[in-house]
Amino acid sequence: MASVSLPRRKNLSTQQTLALLQEMDEADSDGGKVSFVQQATDTSSEESEKETEQEPNMPPRKRPRGTGKPSQSHTAKDSTVWVEEDIGMPSAEANRSCFTAQAGPTESAKRKITSVLQSFLCLLDVGMLHTIRDCTVNQARRTEPDWNLSVHELMAFISILFVRAIMCPVGAIVDCWSERFLVPVIKETMPRDRFISIMQHLRFDDKDTRGERVKTDKFAAISDIWTRFNENCAKSFTPGEHMTIDEQLFPTKVRCPFTQYIASKPDKFGIKFWMATDLDTKYVCSASPYLGKDPSRQKGERLAENVVMKLMEPFLDDGRNVTTDNFFTSLSLSHRLLQRKTTLLGTVNKVRRELPQLARMYSVRAATRRWPVAVFYSMLDLAAGNAYILYKACKGWRGKRRLFLSLLAQELRCRFMQHKEIFAQAAGAAAAAVPGTGKTTQCQVQESCNRNRSRFTCATCHKFTCAKCRDDEHWVCKRCKV
Questions:
Q1: Which segments of 325-368 does DSSP mark as H helices, in order?
Q2: CATH code, 224-346
Q3: Where does the B box-type domain lie (predicted)?
Q4: How deeply is 150 buried, as exposed, middle or buried, from its count of CB atoms within 10 A (0-12, 13-18, 19+)?
């Protein structure tokens, strides 16, 4: 089968590379090698969906009954009330949710596994191998009517991939047959040309029906095999009490409509998978590819919540705990998992609307080019936060932080406003005591002007004084003020 190559370019930006990777018919799978002239190094943003996903509003949490001392509470942007509670003895509900399952290989897996090969066939079973063999043969006979492949030869083909991963993981696969990098066990297993022929025709579905299936499933080229693999993973192992969910970027530059570019990863390009694993053994219990926008996801449901609930579905209601990073962790997800007797542990993104903000909300921060001013802004925020805590602790005050800052601002300006009012009254009295003469003449002080004209006189020396040369608060000229 003819290989597919991208056009040669001296400089290939990140956006151009992604565009080239995604210029393909969704009904096509990777049928050959893809050559890249240069790996792009520009930075691109793939994580925008993490920040733009909106959190559905959760109802405010009710305040628990008092336990003898006032509890600390904070209110978030979405009106969620966080209350500090004392953790005492485990409740009856917690005891009912304790994990009681026996972690480890299932009984059916223990009966089947008598050798290394049988442990592998528990996951990639013989039925899946037959399906791959049939799809590969059907593809090959489109151009070579006499082409054939047995299941045992397909297993030998897979063995070469594992040997190559051990012996010479770097470089092209065909180098394993070269005189310089010869791996004897690979050459003894299969000729190079036969290996290349199987690789070119390797298929995992019926290409005749793929065009219809890909309309609703971007993963149609291998979706059936992947689903059966996931089922086998779940049937062969019972995960323990603690599980983790995160993403994996499988490095590849194949032409694919859902190839991802993540600048923060060691391998920038690849296909992203969501994975749920057992914490103790690192066994992959469930995995799902990220294919872009999912039409089956309900409107308003965050991507992260949808991923966690799908991956954890076979393992819910058993009292497990799942650990996630800040992309997945949210209050609404913890509520959904708790309803299925599953707890959540993870870091939380600071931009979540259900989190109360003490440092970033109501900050005095403003644009400045002087770093001492920026430090001063930070000091004011910290001082206001600590003052809020001290005032509540000393006075038993239960008001919101917004109200506290309003009262603080009002008290900070109170003394100045009193002085300002006194000065205004004095200025009014002086203006009444020194009315204008009605006569307009040149300024006789001329400290800050150039022969301006005025009809007002100084309250001390009674000289005509313009606005630039007098102090309006006391109605005296600058000479008398000194």
A1: 331-339
A2: 3.30.420
A3: 438-482
A4: exposed
